[in-house]
Amino acid sequence: MHVYVEKRLSGPNTYDDASAYIKTQFEDLNMKKGQKEIYSHMTCATDTKNVEIVFNAVTDIIIKENLKDCGLF
């Protein structure tokens, strides 16, 4: 992670720490907390079960937004 991040990170350079850091970076950029939902998934694109989770999350977002636009959610 130290190669890709400008500031130095403390703690172990593990997958869990790095993925938590990346997730936090994206969530902190959300200027519409409470209005804009962010789904975070760490996945390998070749793992079809994980890709299915991501597609289901995206579908959920699209359906919710369409229902909100129609006044049904």
TrEMBL record:
The keyword Magnesium applies. Pfam families: G-alpha (PF00503). The keyword Aminoacyl-tRNA synthetase does not apply. GO terms for biological process: adenylate cyclase-modulating G protein-coupled receptor signaling pathway; detection of chemical stimulus involved in sensory perception of bitter taste. SUPFAM superfamilies: P-loop containing nucleoside triphosphate hydrolases. Gene3D superfamilies: P-loop containing nucleotide triphosphate hydrolases. GTP binds at residue 45. Belongs to the G-alpha family. G(i/o/t/z) subfamily. This is Uncharacterized protein. It comes from Xiphophorus couchianus (Monterrey platyfish).
